[in-house]
Amino acid sequence: MASTDMAGKSVPAFLNQNPKDRILVLGVPLPLLERVCLYVLLAAVVVLPMVYDGYDIYEFGKILMYMLAVLGLNLLTGFNGQFSLGHSAFFAVGAYATAIMMDQLGMPYWATIIPAAAVCFVAGFLFGLPALRLDGLFLALATFALAIATPQLLKYDGIAHLTGGVQGIVLDTPYPPGWVDSIVMSITGEELSLDRWKYMFTAFVAVIMFAGAWNLVHSRTGRALIAIRDNPLSAKTMGINTSMFKSAAFGVSAMYTGVAGSLFAIMDEYLAPESFTFAEAIKFLVGGVIGGIASLFGAIFGGWFVLEIPNIADLAASSLENYINNPQGLTGLIYGLFLIFTVYVMPMGAAGLAQILVHKISTRR
Amino acid sequence: MDLFIEQTVSGLASGAIYACLALAVVMIYQAIDHFNFAQGEMAMFSTYIAWYLMDDAGLGLPFWVAFFVCIIVSFIGGAAIERIVFAPISDAPVLSHIIVFIALFSMFNSLAGFMFDFTPKQFTTPFGHEALIEGVISWHRAGMVGVTLIMLLLIYAFFRYTPIGLAMRAAAAAPESARLVGIRVGFMLALGWGLAAAVGSVAGMLIAPITFLTPDMMLGTLLYGFAGAVVGGLTSPLGAVIGGFMVGILENWMGTFVVGSQLKLTVALVLIIVVLLVKPAGLLGRVVVKRV
Amino acid sequence: MKLLTTTMVSAAALAVAMGAAEARNAPGVTDKEIKIGNTNPYSGPAAAYSSIGKSIGACMDKFNAEGGVHGRQINFISVDDGYSPPRTVEQTRKLVEREKVAFVFQGLGTPTNSAVHTYMNKKKVPQLFVATGATKWGDPKNFPWTMGWQPNYQSEGVVYARYVMAQNPNAKIGILYQNDDYGKDYVHGMENGLGDKAGSMIVASESYEVTDPTIESQIVNIKNSGADVFYNVTTPKFAAQAISKNFELGWAPLHLLNSVSNSIGSVVSKAGFEKGQGMISAAYLMDPTDTEWHSHDEFKAWNAWMDEYYPDGDKTDAFTAFGWAVCHTMIKVLDQAGDDLSRENIMAQAANLKNYRAPMLLPGIAVNTSPTDFYPIEQWQLQRLKDKSWERFGDIIDGAVGSGS
Lengths: 365, 292, 405
Hints:
- The complex is a heterotrimer of chains A (about 375), B (about 290) and C (about 400).
- Chain A is mainly alpha-helical and about 375 residues long.
- Chain A has helices at about 30-50, 55-80, 85-105, 115-130, 135-155, 160-165, 180-190, 195-215, 220-230, 230-235, 240-270, 280-290, 295-320, 330-345, 350-360, and strands spanning about 25, 30, 170, 270.
- Chain A has 15 helices and 4 strands.
- Chain A has a two-stranded antiparallel ribbon with strand order 1-2.
- Chain A is globular, with a radius of gyration of 21 Å.
- Chain B is mostly helical.
- Chain B has one domain (about 5-280): Orthogonal Bundle (ABC transporter involved in vitamin B12 uptake, BtuC).
- Helix content of chain B is about 75%, strand content about 0%.
- The longest helix of chain C is centred in the C-terminal third of the chain and has 20 residues, at about 320-335.
- Chain C has a 7-stranded mixed β-sheet with strand order 7-6-8-9-10-11-12, sandwiched between helices. A 5-stranded parallel β-sheet of chain C has the order 2-1-3-4-5, sandwiched between helices.
- In chain C, strand 1, helix 3 and strand 2 form a beta-alpha-beta unit.
- Chain C is an alpha/beta fold.
- Chain C has 2 domains: about 1-150 and about 295-375, Rossmann fold; about 155-285 and about 380-400, Rossmann fold (3-Layer(aba) Sandwich), CATH 3.40.50.2300.
- At the A-B interface, helix 5, helix 12 and helix 14 of A face helix 4, helix 9 and helix 11 of B.
């Protein structure tokens, strides 16, 4: 049952990162294969806005946005072994940070990303401090409570002059800067559509953040995080400052999910407390788990899944329409079934499944 | 009457609700060493079953018949969930369990709305809503406190005096060792789930006459229930009941005199975090030393 | 008219290939069909409202069975947004850009409609008769493509305020409201209606969250403030709780119950008739559970339709009557639009309803719009609970808000 592990305590040996230099897939070393995958994805990200426009490209942008949110959770849970059922709160912090900077300070949307990221990092770090003393299960409880309390915190009258309270905030449209417009104009001869620009902006941020996560996970720090996850005690004896790393991991995780929130605010141009409920936290968890919680690539799949699952549920619902009354009410049931299915059949998510397949191919010779 | 006293009395009244649910939380924590995030939704679903048994549109059974049938159905349902859903992943780490809890949460919530729709349902009480002491407590609330205390006694006696209760604790806390001394761990876990579901169903049936029955009746309530259990100590049924009442009173005091009614839920959040940090064992709980 | 002609000129080239009628019409309109989009919370915390979407669907089925509108069938596409604003954006864009609906009708909820408010107006797609009572939907100057339907929440607050002022200018009012846009709008309405006296007359104002298990602590506070008027701005579950709790406390103020929760079947009877005697509420729709209407022709038509087209529906659910009435209003607009089903004309006809009596509106109440008046229903009548039904009293009251007052 070694492979049932999700937080990665007894992962099969071949999935541990180090020996993979020696693994060849159809004659190609695995790291190279991963790199190729990465470049293919990157190319796709660049090509998409040339092909698609309108609702399609908007959807791709949302996938990248959710990818970042899920990535935040993956960094925390998958790589550091801490649980969170409350990432909707950090998503909200990022979104509101951006919205307030635009609304109150009149900052341009693109300038808010970095300060919003910093705010989220600090928020996450601070929440991570008490969380240090909480065991996995208790941390889940504390974050569960956080997620449920978030919408009413956002509505609180004391900060309503900033957050817009129950009315939410309508944001300015994020028009592309003039130079981008003129470059696109000179190349294609067409005006850049708003949807395409929103996507390009989102993709730009998402790619940088993804690259950052990639480097983090493959660095000394990343290995320290993984060591803490796998065996906190021995990590400590090896001289890793466990509490520092754990709080920092919480901060980084909150930062990723928070930046996703910022992008969400810019993309939808509107925020309300109803956008940050416990259901949103469940969404991120579902995305993380189904994509593969201990995988960066998994977050991409997870982001896609988060966006698509309501559509899948809708589809299932409409095909049942003739048999039962109100099939759309079953969305939650379908969520649940997917989760249980994943835990049973592919405990390491889609990414884990892919890794196993790769391993099968590489050892077949 | 003085506002302070009135708020305290009203806090005790809602505290009774939290105490009920906190008891269910402790029950499952004793039985499986986990929180069940789906506990509230399971209790809500049980309550719908009881409603269906009682309502004229359903089977139209008398209250007490429906009450006990519902407890039995919930017990079987809880045990079945353990056997079907959790037994196959018993070796999996905590995260897998948490995910399945969330899955169950989502499924029960969705199913309840699907099967019984979303309009609030009236849930009858056998005690009546008339005042027992004018302006202080109604018969239903008195009955609710009474039933909660009876449950408390039963649970306390079960864990304290029956060998099976002890075996259950052992199976939850140290499954490997328990297996070695001949305890049927799987059976114990199923039993624990069944009992927790039964306790939850009683809580649901006591709460519903006050809050009315809707699919989302438990989301906020469960948080207060958790807070009650954490304050009282997760290993102590008596602590949970006391904790539940304390949370009810504290919530009202804070809501009225300190933070205003907008932040009442936040009080529960802060309470959970502070107690977990400062006194993780709660008021009456045992300190559990984890061996590494 | 100028707008229309320019559209026609620019479309002329296309018209040669496609036929004049089709070029002029909105997307989603053919000779046989009109595609209408809708978002509703079929799942999630606000799913109790989904019976509105379902009853509109069933009502459209009835019109289709009777031959549609000018020979065109209505294709009513209602999708789930779970009351989550980002989801509403996704679903609405999908309806407009992929399904190519002619317009969106009766999207439900204030935060959800707010999320697509700018989008719809930029795209120039009608966002018709949104199912929310916020005041912001009647702003033809800035948002010419959006229109509400039901009387707005603030106007109802004004109606109560005037009633209280007339009864007792020195009343002390205690307010219980849901902490969201709906609750706050009602409170604003009351404050506007009281004018300068709001500060002295409102002695307590307590909010609750939808996730709160009970509202008892709040009621204790309101009672203790010495209020003799209780302004109850709550959704059905909490309204029933409040009625019960007042009774339990032996507190009998003048109870003003907001129309959101004045259904006999799903609120008052569940709390208990004896607990609610003398409550005052405002109404604009017939309550199908009120026996007073059972001999009324419009009720009979509604009842027959429920039996035939929506048998799973709950007849005690006032939302079914709401859906029935708003669906008729929509059909009326399409009927007026005739064969010119351009988005401009549909919007123009929606803003050109003169004294239209949608079925199930209270006698004497009608739908009225104009290019400067985007509040279709602005009338109320007060009623008092007596025995097991509401007893209406006084004249039909105009509660116009937003444009003035």
